[in-house]
Design brief:
heterodimer, A: alpha/beta, Rossmann fold, 2 domains, 4-stranded parallel beta sheet, 14 helices, B: mainly alpha, two-stranded antiparallel sheet, 70% helix
Chain lengths: 399, 294
């Protein structure tokens, strides 16, 4: 009985590999903040982006049935890792995408490695994901703290901002961003006069702004994100920080933040992003479709990253005809990345995806032609210079 | 310039003043909570959501109807207060004879629903609301730059707190306190106790909305603004003593100051310092600093 069952199974397996392509069922999980400070820049938008990737790839025509699930990690590492565990162990999720909030991303990366699945991060910032804490199961797609420091930090130093004070969110991401920017400032001959770490998330930043003001630094670096950055910039305007001659460097600013601040307050900010809807015809066409599905809201770079990474993942599954984590991962690293939003790039051995980054300046209210017309392109940072060199991250996978 | 505990006096004064400003919000919010708890015996978990509604309504009045800050200051507490009255009549009044826990669960559920609705419609990043022109700019105090608007927040909050405290001393206040102690007897004197209770709830909610209007120009107007604040405010109420009006006002301002100092001395602990104090107070004086023993 048992023998015949095995023979029968073998027969079926043989029939499938020789005949029509086997049907593959893939389950992907979008794990992000759906209710807190990062919900607008990731949240439901990332689920929409993932669905668009599945549709554009025409997955069903290629015999790949994709099932998308999503959950709210509430920016808490314990919540995030227990959802990841449950997804991998009980619900058959093959890969997790997005995961903003670096502390959660680092935890999910650990769980993914333990369970030998795939984790492609778009929303988190800490460059440690592909540095000392890199993992053979983790890819980091959209941006990281090194790239932000290099872009915005570099631009501020070039403009003569050689003394800095940091207002830093007190968790993995803020610490990483402050560390990477400090390294860059000091390498360029600048000096860091001090820093203050605020609880995450916060609402009143006036106290920290006052300390930054008293430091006399030329540049106040905001090593925080989302709602925290919005509040800091709003209150900096109130306390006359910029009129006093100090400059604000928003080290991580998303287009959704600018939308919330309004151009009156945000004008003149210099920032680094991996994606902007109004870059070229391809990004405009995709963003228009995205906006139609999300009440007219334009996509953030995190949404774009989820789209591109799901696309690359599905391509690798198609090419290998497998969803085995190590097989698919090897293929993703071997195959160059190519999509309408980020153009051509590659997945490095440490998991870092390289693509162009952009330095933008926020438009003045009179320069903007309407809602979401917010950025002027200052410079394109080519992929080869935009990210930390492979040998400097301390990732054990790099030999 | 001189130094105190190794901190330049300039920085210290600046931080104390900022602490006082945050304290104004704590005082105003915990005042509303204290009034509601004192008379209704309801722990109003929806207070944060009602504060958030105040800020959102301020933004809506400007964006949809062109009604500015000063009118909002008057209209919003009334409108949100009316919402409170309806809530009390329809739902909360049905729980009077039940345990505290039911009121807590009901208002907590309401808070989640209200926040969720705003989140679906407006997202979480917040909406821009400018400082009214007459209060733009600021004063150079020598040791710090004080925005005029923040000065206004302290003054307005202090006067509202003082007015509420005085009202409690009048005959109306006496009725209210009597109605808490023995509603049946007070009703026998021809006073409509249920109506008194409904109006009190509306008043408490109106105070939350007023704090929301004051917060709109300085904090981001977003659906989570109340949830972030309410936990701290509850700690303030617990430290001050549940139901004590003077207690909640004094504790509100005092904890604002302590939090301000922590932001200077050890910023990482600034979000937890209030809870540490709460734990200590509960150990030493379980009824709170100003509370009477039950």
């Amino acid at each position: 009985m048992k023998l015949s069952a095995i023979l029968l199974a073998g027969l079926f397996a043989g029939a499938f590999t020789t005949g029509a392509r086997a049907e593959i069922d893939v389950k992907i999980g979008i794990l992000n903040d759906r209710s807190g400070v990062y919900a607008d820049l990731s949240g439901e938008g990332s689920v929409i982006a993932a669905r668009m990737a599945v549709e554009d790839f025409k997955a069903t025509d290629k015999g790949i049935r994709v099932n998308i699930v999503s959950a709210d990690h509430q920016n808490k590492p314990d919540v995030g890792s227990s959802i990841a565990r449950q997804w991998y162990d009980q619900e058959g999720v093959d890969a997790i995408f997005d995961v903003p909030t670096s502390s959660v991303a680092l935890a999910v990366s650990q769980v993914t490695r333990e369970k030998n699945k795939i984790f492609i991060d778009s929303g988190a910032g800490a460059a440690d994901l592909t540095g000392k804490q890199c993992s053979p199961n983790t890819i980091h797609w959209t941006y990281d703290t090194w790239a932000l420091a290099n872009g915005t930090g570099g631009a501020m130093v070039k403009q003569g901002g050689d003394t800095w004070f940091f207002i830093t969110a007190d968790y993995a991401f803020g610490h990483a961003l402050e560390r990477d920017t400090t390294a860059l400032v000091e390498k360029s001959g600048g000096k860091v006069l001090g820093s203050v770490k605020h609880p995450f998330p916060g609402s009143d930043f006036s106290s920290f702004l006052l300390q930054a003001q008293a430091s006399g630094a030329k540049v106040i670096g905001l090593a925080n994100a989302g709602g925290d950055t919005i509040n800091t910039i709003k209150q900096a305007a109130e306390f006359g920080i910029t009129q006093g001659g100090q400059k604000l460097a928003g080290l991580l600013i998303f287009i959704t933040d600018i939308h919330a601040l309004g151009l009156q307050v945000a004008q003149g900010l210099v920032l680094t992003e991996a994606f902007y809807w109004d870059l070229n015809d391809a990004t405009r066409a995709w963003s228009k479709r995205f906006a139609e599905r999300s009440d007219g809201k334009m996509p953030s770079m995190v949404h774009a990253g989820v789209y591109a990474s799901v696309l690359h993942y599905l391509k690798a599954i198609e090419a290998t005809n497998s969803k085995d984590a190590s097989v698919v991962m090897a293929k993703m690293k071997e195959m160059p990345t190519d999509d309408p939003l980020f153009g051509k790039g590659q997945v490095r051995i440490d998991g870092r995806v390289t693509h162009d980054m952009y330095l933008f300046e926020v438009k003045k209210p009179e320069e903007s032609k309407g809602d979401w017309d917010y950025y002027k392109l200052l410079a394109t940072i080519p992929a080869a210079e935009a990210f930390r060199p492979l040998n400097e991250g301390g990732c054990p996978l790099v030999k | 310039m001189f130094t105190i505990l190794g901190i330049p006096s300039q920085a210290l004064f600046g931080q104390l003043l900022l602490g006082l400003i945050n304290g104004s919000f704590y005082a105003l919010l915990s005042l509303g909570l204290a009034i509601i708890f004192g008379l209704l015996n309801i722990i109003n978990f929806a207070h944060g959501a009602q504060y958030m509604m105040g800020a959102f309504l301020t933004w809506m009045l400007l964006s949809y109807f062109g009604v500015g800050y000063w009118w909002a200051l008057l209209l919003v507490p009334v409108l949100v207060g009316i919402f409170g009255l309806v809530l009390e009549r329809l739902l909360i009044s049905r729980l009077h004879h039940l345990d505290h826990l039911y009121g807590l669960l009901l208002t907590f559920g309401l808070a989640l629903i209200i926040q969720g609705l705003f989140r679906i419609r407006y997202g979480v990043s917040g909406l821009p609301y400018g400082i009214p022109l007459t209060l733009a700019g600021g004063q150079n105090l020598g040791f710090m730059f004080l925005p005029n608007y923040r000065l206004w927040v302290i003054l307005l909050s202090l006067s509202v707190c003082l007015a509420t405290w005085l009202v409690e001393k009048t005959k109306l206040g006496a009725y209210l306190r009597a109605a808490t102690e023995n509603p049946t007897l007070v009703q026998a004197f021809g006073i409509n106790v249920p109506r008194l209770i409904t109006l009190t709830y509306g008043g408490g909610v109106g105070l939350a909305a007023l704090a929301g209007v004051m917060a709109a120009p300085i904090y981001s107007v977003n659906p989570n603004m109340g949830a972030d604040m309410i936990i701290t405010v509850f700690a303030v109420v617990v430290i001050g003593g549940m139901g004590s009006i003077a207690g909640s006002i004094v504790t509100g301002f005092a904890l604002g100051l302590i939090e301000g100092l922590t932001k200077l001395l050890y910023p990482e602990a600034s979000s937890t310092v209030i809870f540490i104090i709460m734990a200590i107070v509960l150990l030493l004086k379980p009824a709170g600093l100003f509370g009477r023993r039950v």
